[in-house]
Amino acid sequence: MIQPPKKILFASDLSTDMAKVFEHAATMAAYSKAEIIVLHVMEEASKSSERLVKIAFGEKLYQDIKTEQRSGAKNLLIGKNVDALKIRQAIAGFFQEEKTAARQTDSGSLIEKILVTEGKSIADEITLTAAQEGCDIIVMGCRQQGMLAEAMGDHVVRKVLKRTSVPVFVVPFSR
Fold it and tell me: How far apart are CA 59 and CA 57, in angstroms?
């Protein structure tokens, strides 16, 4: 028998399309009384690109920029950004309208933790995090137009599907 998920990994690319994808993850979490781990992976720059930027701007400025990018991504995900706050309010309204009885944490959220990582392969980071965190399902978004073509090509969703034994729930969205 299939067990309802207890931990859901929501992989976000920080685009506005992710609100719809997160809504699916949140609904799934509410109905199954699961927790959500939000993940954003920043793709690592190639060594040659990194070296050129360090030469042009200096090591300290390069590190400051990387730190600022990571902080900006985390702030967006935790709602310190106005657009992210609007998305969270809309999601909260969705749950009130649906009168969903969900187990919530002290902060009033289904979100257990928010992770911002960096790696050479986004798909590898997603699958590694799902395994490390003991996630039962991965929720991701995929552009609707040409979704089949993208799934067969060099796309993150395809790579995750190939590399994980965890079920993957793919939410299509329009361009």
Answer: 7
Mean pLDDT of 159-167: 93
In a domain, 2, yes or no: no
> What residue numbers bound the domain in which 17 lies?
7-173
Quote the tokens at residue 111: 């979100």
- What pLDDT, in 10s, does the model give residues 2-20? 889 999 999 988 888 888 8
Count structural domains, the chain. 1
Phi first, then psi: give them for residue 139, nearest 5 degrees.
Answer: -110, 125
Give yes or no for residue 73 having a pLDDT over 70.
no
Q: Residue 18: inside a domain, yes or no?
A: yes
Q: What is the domain-level CATH number for residue 133?
A: 3.40.50.620
Would you say residue 168 lies in a domain?
A: yes
Is residue 36 within 8 Å of residue 65, measured between CB atoms? no
Mean pLDDT of the chain, nearest integer: 77
